[in-house]
Amino acid sequence: MSETASTNEENKLPLNGRRAIPANYSNDDENEVPEMEAFGLIPRGFNPRDYLRVVDIYMFKEPHEINKQEHHTDKYYNPRLIVRRGQAFQIQIDFSRPYKPETDQFWLEFLMGRYPQQNKGTYIPITVGNVLKPGQWGAKITHREKNSIRLSIMSSTTCIIGKFRLYVAVLTPFGILRTRRNSATDTYILFNPWCQLDAVYLDDEKEREEYVLNDVGVIFHGSVEDVKSRSWSYGQFEENVLDACLFLMDKAELELSGRGNPIKICRVASAVINSRDEDGVIAGSWSNSYDYGVAPSAWTGSVDILLDYYSSKKPVKYGQCWVFAGVFNTFLRCLGIPARLITNYSSAHDNNANLRLDFFLDDEGKVDTKLTKDSVWNYHCWNEAWMTRPDLPVGFGGWQVVDGTPQETSDGMYRCGPASVQAIKHGHVCFQFDAPFVYAEVNGDIFYTRMEKNGTQVVENIDTTRIGQLIVTKEVGGDGMADITEEYKFREGSDEERLALETAVMYGVKKENIQDTTYQPQTDVDMDFQAQKVVLGNDFKVTITFRNKSRNSYTATTYFSGNIVFYTGVTKSEFKKHTFSAKLEPSSSRSFDIVIKSSEYMRDLLEQASFHFFVTARINETGKILAVQRAIMLEIPSLRIKTKGELVAGKETSVIVEFTNPLKQTLENVTLRLEGPGVLRTIKKQFGRIPMNSTLTWEVKFIPMRPGLRKLIASLNSDALRHVYGELNVQIQKP
């Protein structure tokens, strides 16, 4: 076979009876574009140099130049032009001679992928006109000087997001002359929250600065009684992160033509962030052993995870909910979709969205761990993305829940959302996607049910307030906490709340009527539970208080159970059991203290250092049961960070991280991480051990890259101690 025949064979498309061209879902693949596209036979004397020829194209792509400044893309560490859709940008074309509009004809071509097609939005020819229409592709000349012209180019507000190749085509009588393939003129087009016609338009400048441009965030964790926070570096502008985020859409096999739609992008991304279906970004592990990987608590930000995945194409080990949410937030902000990270405290994870979590009690009123399958997570993190929802009735746009943590399958894959927060609040859970699941996470009731010997179930107590009692995110423009519970649900017990619940039930959320179950609560005795602030490694006490509001004397047989739990509410071990009888005088209160020694809990402690206490009390005279459960977080010591010398962009300086071991044991296999977006890339260092009471000091020299207020974030990880963080705000001066 001759050489030409074999290359023709290779260029032929693979035969497929279903579609004329293969699926087009790689942003990186390219097609060959001819530099001379002849209309027929070319006469002998034809010389392309006789016609208008493009000598150079200038993209104004430096961070300080007009395009990146006006499009809010000057922070991206990327040498190419990055613009936002629906907003004009400038380029300059230098020709071989002055341009004559009467006789010369040229146009621009933007191409994406291997099989560019105009009707799919992957081939965009733009002719030069006199006016730019808002929200539509077009170009007009704004300036002519000697051999150069300056163009203002408008992109469509529904344009595909990704990296386009740019060609300039000139018409001659015998064919089309095109510029050579030049990757320096590649143009990234992103979503535009500043443009009113864009589906992700957000009208508040302070919110845009927070939800699109802020590259550091705060993650709230702990428990509702003891909210804790830590910083997370999103790093959406760091080198190669934009390419890594575009690669995620290739990996999820999202057709290029669908990439202008934020609903589709969020839906496929919520599946590709986790590794459960298609070898996505992060492998989850809730096992407390993280061999051959990084413990979820050790990560300080998203950049390392995304870049590791982009280069290895293999899932990165390991993540838990806040890691999935942190990486998802980077992905959304990087592409220009406003996004924030949400924490739901006491998050219900029941397997069948029936708004009921069952905790089974045995004959004595103690929780039966074998029968109890449902769990209440101390907290669960997900994301909200801001967009219009043209696929839903009016009023359900705005914040949408998306969740990358693999929990339940949705249409056969581990993914969740986008689900309208407004629809969840009003109980309109019929609107796609996955609204019933999110509704149950924030609205379940806890039923304490006793199994009789004959198998009947008796409901002893119902807790309607615990689930989803606090939903928070980082405040705009600060590191504090914003309580957004009211955006997800009406006030407990209000008429609106009842109506929303009835609506959700009408649309198929299963709710059991309390009338169906025999249940009369004990109303004249209250039981409450308090714990001191607990520092890791110390003894502490908890207090159980009874309030007898009746005129009767009662005795209460009380069971106290202390458990070490994963933050998902799943018990690892019971470390404390205590039973006592409480005499309750009429119209009075009485408190009982229980002391918990560090020796009782230190051996089995898990990384998030959280305890779960169950207290159940049976009033002997009436047979009624009171029940309360609490999650308590230990105070974990933090890392101390300080800087040495002055901080000037481009000048070497150093930072010192210190940590004192508070435990009565040596810490083994200690790893420290330090990073700061725009200041320094993640640095890791391993230390063998830290003996008890001794202090570790680590000095890191670095050169800050850009001026402004930045944040340094550090974490420490070891076999016995995890979730140790430190942070420092630093002001970097201009040189």
UniProtKB/TrEMBL annotation:
At the top level, the lineage of the source is: Eukaryota
Q: Which is one GO molecular function term here? A: metal ion binding
Q: What is its EC number?
A: 2.3.2.13
The residues forming a coiled coil are none
Q: What does the entry list as the binding residues for Ca(2+)?
A: N443, D445, E492, E497
Could you tell me what reaction this enzyme catalyses? L-glutaminyl-[protein] + L-lysyl-[protein] = [protein]-L-lysyl-N(6)-5-L-glutamyl-[protein] + NH4(+)
How cofactor binds (record note)?
Binds 1 Ca(2+) ion per subunit.
The active site of this protein is located at C321, H380, D403
Q: Name one GO biological process term.
A: blood coagulation, fibrin clot formation
Question: Could you tell me where this protein is found in the cell?
Answer: Cytoplasm; Secreted
Name the protein family.
Belongs to the transglutaminase superfamily. Transglutaminase family.
**Name of the protein in its database record:** Coagulation factor XIII A chain
The protein's gene is named F13a1
